[in-house]
Write a structure and sequence with these properties.
Elements: E1 8-11, E2 17-21, E3 23-24, E4 27-28, E5 33-38, E6 48-53, H1 60-63, E7 71-81, E8 87-88, E9 96-102, E10 117-121, E11 126-129, E12 131-135, E13 141-146, E14 152-157, E15 163-165, E16 177-179, H2 183-189
Antiparallel strand pairs: 1-6, 2-5, 3-4, 5-9, 6-7, 7-8, 7-14, 9-13, 10-11, 10-14, 12-13, 15-16
């Protein structure tokens, strides 16, 4: 498994918690910064918020699959701890926002920052979080989103959650809805599928 030190931990007793992780014991957070903001009481029982960077994003694909067309720009794990150091990952009761800043030097060559997506790993697949991406005058990219829970997060280029819902049966007839891309992408994703 990927192991990184819990390098950014802040108390949740202030009116607004702002936790910024930029530099870690292993170097910069994949050359980016993350700012989490939570109003008091937004995460019931939380005493601390922790951001753990994944310093070697290439190692991420050894633990969880990364879509073939996507590039991981940065990845991190975020969670809260209660007074007994027990993990809190969900049951938010208020707004928890995140701003992830990717410096221009970390924007992959030839990528279009407008294709950057903030995604989370749900234990089975990556899912996109509604976010806004802004290309700053210096070429850096800032993504802003509201979080519903804590988990493993990544900023990816060219992310698509293309899929048929429900998944097609291996034999017989299935009525499914395609979302997330063109019909040619559907043929690539499901090569044995015959659309009617």
């Amino acid at each position: 498994p990927i192991r990184t030190p819990a390098n950014s931990s802040v108390s949740t007793s202030s009116p607004t918690v702002v936790s910024t992780a930029a530099n870690t014991a292993n170097g910069p957070l994949a050359a980016g910064t993350v700012t989490l903001t939570a109003q008091p009481g937004a995460i019931p029982g939380a005493e601390r918020i922790v951001i753990e960077p994944i310093s070697k994003t290439a190692d991420l694909s050894q633990v969880v699959p990364v879509p073939a067309q996507s590039t991981v720009v940065l990845a991190l794990s975020a969670f809260a701890l209660d007074a007994s150091n027990q993990l809190i990952r969900d049951n938010f009761r208020g707004e928890v926002s995140v701003v992830i800043a990717v410096p221009a030097s970390s924007v992959p060559a030839g990528s279009n920052p407008s294709t950057f997506a903030l995604v989370f790993w749900d234990g089975k697949e990556w899912s996109q979080i509604p976010s806004s991406a802004v290309v700053n005058p210096d070429g850096s990219v800032s993504l802003t989103a509201l979080l519903q829970h804590f988990t493993l997060y990544a900023v990816m280029t060219n992310f698509t959650s293309a899929r048929l819902t429900p998944a097609p049966y291996t034999s017989g007839l299935t009525l499914s809805v395609w979302s997330g891309g063109s019909v040619s992408l559907m043929g690539t994703t499901y090569p044995k599928l015959r659309a009617v």
